[in-house]
TrEMBL record, chain A:
Record-annotated ABC transporter domain positions: 9-247
Pfam families documented for this protein: ABC_tran (PF00005)
Protein name as annotated: Monosaccharide ABC transporter ATP-binding protein, CUT2 family (TC 3.A.1.2.-)
Signal peptide: none
TrEMBL record, chain B:
GO terms for cellular component: plasma membrane
Source species of the chain: Klenkia brasiliensis
Name of the featured protein: Xylose transport system permease protein XylH
InterPro entries according to UniProt: ABC_transp_permease
Chief subcellular location: membrane
Domain of life: Bacteria
PANTHER family per record: ABC TRANSPORTER PERMEASE PROTEIN YPHD-RELATED-RELATED, XYLOSE TRANSPORT SYSTEM PERMEASE PROTEIN XYLH
Topology term for the membrane: Multi-pass membrane protein
A molecular function GO annotation: transmembrane transporter activity
Length: 248, 347
């Protein structure tokens, strides 16, 4: 594990209390460029809370967050985005009635000319290029999003995160709703991100997937970080033991 | 921090897609076909219909509904309704009428005050909807009744009757009139200045919706509010702006009807809110938001204006208008429903 100060994500002693309830207790993690770290744990272990803290929806009660070596305090999701943290949401945050390219640029539309009119052509061009680079197979950047399949939609959500992320891409169960073939396709896209040097933190329930794509896995149990292991140096049984606390 | 994709030399063309099918998917196509059919129909059954004076009359009628229909369509694309839109046209007219004839306020000042009041009420509608998360249907139904009640009570209080009296005698009336109630002679036809307003409003709304970032946000907040918020679209600002726009359009139509007829009644505009929604839906707006067009709503209003006057020219009982409207609405909703199912099928 590298300890350069310019890690895309570095969490130190992050805790979150809701009233008297401790949701996250002293969580530490560093994600390097080109590294995929999986965050696993049972339902209610605090995975979503942690994702919300990193994406700016919650503020940590204690601890520090560093993005690319800079300590940050996010007031909301827009703050986190401005620092280059992109999230692939479970519900995808896509608009069905708009074309693919507009989904990629929604909220950050490209404009041209003195009248600042939308530059649809350029947005479509960049989108086309991006989906080709990531090998997300869609009919066209101008296709209506609602006409795409589940795997294609997920691919678009990930492509959007890739396009805008300068630090970290957070993924919350990116393949939960997909079939086997589509999951494989999305995993390919995630590995493409890694090869482009993105830091990826992925929440997953699917341990086979974790071992297929992640470099390291960190386990949460009831808000406590049980441990972090390189996937090459552990196995499913050990991780399951860490998640359940039964045979670790 | 990079905010754009790495540029690349090879400027690949986007995958070619057929132009004709895409054009046919525009929301206003159905309304354009229907408008043409209505035009031809009344041209055949009523000989007055295509005379210069006939055209001037139905254009004027269409313009007063069209300005509102375009604003209401934008609001509907943004996923909201404004049931106070009709009453707003009466309330702004009454405000100017009462302030000038009843209290001697300068008519120019009164017109501007009415604009400020209208936009403030629109902002309040928007604020209530955004803050409470209540359906705009209910919030604006409340505003509608408040406005109607004030309209009735205020006019009765000042005049003891239900209409503003003596408005054309107020000082400077003639200096404001050309702006809202003017008439332009084109050939043998008298075209109301409201028709120009109608064209301008439709053009500006279309440009905003299709060419600007704010317009794009309108489609996004109506189509998928949670997604829009998650991607950083200012949802509250967009929606409040839409309600203010609708109220501003209500002011414009209020001024037009006031200066065209030199009077205004306390019931002016009441009931018209549904006509606006019908025009917008006929023009291709989905009731669920996220889809529609300003041109479509303008065409919907044109259909309404043509039918309203066409029925009169054809010498029929004007009550048939409502039956026709109902049929148009149902047909439009069925077509829209089919469009939405197309958009939602698959996955």
């Amino acid at each position: 594990m590298t300890t350069t100060t310019a890690a895309p994500l570095r969490l130190e002693g992050v805790s979150k209390h809701f009233g008297g309830v401790t949701a996250i207790q002293r969580f530490d993690l560093e994600v390097a460029p080109g590294e995929i770290v999986a965050l696993v744990g049972d339902n209610g272990a605090g995975k979503s809370t942690l994702v919300k803290i990193i994406s700016g929806l919650y503020q940590p009660s204690e601890g520090t967050i560093e993005i690319n070596g800079e300590q940050v305090t996010f007031r909301d999701a827009a703050d986190a985005r401005a620092k280059g943290v992109e999230v692939v949401y479970q519900d995808l945050a896509l608009v069905d009635l708009q074309p693919v390219y507009m989904n990629l640029f929604l909220g950050r539309e490209l404009r041209r000319g003195p009248l600042r009119v939308l530059d649809r052509k350029e947005m479509a061009r960049q989108t086309q290029q991006l989906v080709e680079d990531l090998d997300v197979r869609i009919p066209s950047a101008r296709a209506l999003l609602g006409d795409l399949s589940g795997g294609q939609r997920q691919g678009i959500a990930i492509a959007r995160a890739t396009h805008w992320a300068s630090g970290l891409v957070l993924m919350d169960e990116p393949t939960a709703a997909l079939g086997v073939a589509e999951t494989a396709k999305v995993e390919e896209v995630i590995l493409k991100l890694k090869s482009r040097g993105a830091a990826v933190l992925i929440v997953s329930h699917n341990l086979d997937q974790v071992f297929r794509i992640a470099d390291r896995v960190t386990v949460l149990r009831r808000g406590t970080q049980v441990g972090t292991r390189p996937t090459a140096g552990t196995d499913k049984n050990e991780v399951i033991g860490m998640i359940t606390g039964l045979s670790s | 921090m990079t905010t754009t994709a790495p540029a690349r030399d090879a400027d690949r063309e986007a995958a070619p897609t057929g132009r004709a099918p895409r054009a046919l998917r525009r929301p206003e196509v159905g309304a354009a076909v229907a408008a043409l059919a209505v035009l031809v129909f009344f041209a055949v059954v009523a000989e007055q219909f295509l005379t210069p004076s006939g055209i001037g009359t139905w254009l004027n009628s269409a313009s007063r509904f069209g300005i509102m229909a375009v604003a209401v369509a934008m609001l509907m694309i943004g996923g909201e309704f404004d049931l106070s839109a009709g009453a707003m046209t009466g309330a702004t007219g009454l405000l100017v009428g009462v302030a000038t004839t009843g209290y001697g306020l300068n008519v120019w000042v009164a017109v501007l005050v009415a604009l400020v009041v209208a936009v403030a009420i629109g902002a309040l509608n928007g604020f209530l909807v955004v803050r409470t998360g209540l359906p705009s249907f209910i919030v604006t139904l409340g505003t509608f009744f408040v406005l109607q009640g004030i309209d009735l009570a205020l006019v009765k209080l000042v005049y003891g009757q239900v209409a503003v009296q003596g408005f054309s005698d107020v000082p400077y009336f003639d200096s404001v009139r050309p702006l809202f109630g003017g008439v332009i002679r084109v050939g043998g036809a008298s075209i109301s200045v409201s028709v120009l307003w109608f064209l301008a409003v439709t053009a500006v709304a279309t440009l905003v919706l299709l060419r600007t970032r704010a317009g794009n946000w309108v489609f996004a907040v109506g189509g998928a509010q949670a997604s829009a918020r998650a991607t950083g679209v200012p949802v509250a600002r967009t929606k409040i702006g839409l309600f203010m726009t609708t109220a501003g359009a209500g002011w414009l139509v209020g001024m037009i009807s006031l200066f065209q007829s030199s009077t205004v009644q306390s019931s002016t505009g009441v009931g018209d809110e549904f006509i606006y929604i019908i025009c917008a839906v006929v023009g291709g707006c989905l009731l669920t938001g996220g889809y529609g067009s300003a041109v479509g709503a303008a065409l919907g209003a044109l259909i309404y204006g043509m039918t309203r006057q066409g029925v009169v020219y054809a010498g029929w009982d004007s009550n048939w208008l409502y039956a026709f409207l109902g049929v148009m609405l149902l047909a439009a909703v069925l077509v829209n429903n089919w469009v939405r199912q197309r958009a939602e099928r698959l996955r």
